[in-house]
Amino acid sequence: MEPPHERVKKIEVQGLRVAFGPKEVIHGISFDVYQNEILAVIGPAQSAKSSMLRCLNRTDIYDLRRKIGMVAPMPVGLPLSIYDNVAFAPRAAGIRSKSELDGLVERCLRQAALWDEVKERLDGLGTKLSGGQQQRLTIARALSHQPEVLCLDEFSIAIDPVTTMRIEDVVKELRHEITVILVTNLVQQARRLADRTMFLWNGDIIEIDESDVIFSETPRSRKTYEYVNGIFG
Measured by CB atoms within 10 angstroms of the end CB, which terminus of the chain is less buried, N or C? Predict the structure, then answer.
């Protein structure tokens, strides 16, 4: 990770508030996300982690939205072939050249560590893949419009530990090319992957810092120490 003074801001959030009816769930939070970092967002259930992530994905600024890829907790494959799952967004963006689509599909499937498993059956239904393969297909699809930021919302909630580790390896490789924001309930996953970690609690940022600080014996907030050490949450 680059020294703080050399980092390039990819996203700047100022005073974000979110409410569902009269109930405010995010209370004016501000933070930056830097280029080519993995930022993990941790916190207890109902802390508005996913709501915050969806705000980034649902921006009304079309050019920015196209630069963000989103992966949901449960793998959601389109009822199409593996090839067409990945080619769907590029075709919608106007790409028609078969050679260009072929190269893009292969690149995205390789980035998602799925190519070697499916290259002989690209015309097979994506929904027939295993749960772990479908989640990697979802990542490939999210990468297909060449986003600059990839948002992962509890990507490992429905897959086995072995596949989780494979996808974690994918995420670590992707940070060399894009920025990754990772919402996770798994504290150790954040510790393994993230350059920086945000501790979000009841819609407020308790602490955001280098992961080495967050997971040390002396984070700035006692609440952070208690959460990452399993004292509550």
Answer: N
What is residue 3's predicted lDDT score, i.e. its pLDDT?
Answer: 60
pTM of the model: 0.89
The sheet carrying 68-71 orders its strands as 68-71, 149-153, 179-183, 38-42, 196-201, 204-210
Place of tokens 């830097």: 34
pLDDT single digits (tens) 12-39: 999 999 999 999 999 999 999 999 999 9
**Residue ranges of domains in the chain, CATH in brackets:** 4-228 (3.40.50.300)
For residue 61, the model assigns a pLDDT of: 47
Structure tokens at 171: 């995420």
- Chain segment 139-148, per-residue pLDDT in tens: 999 999 889 9
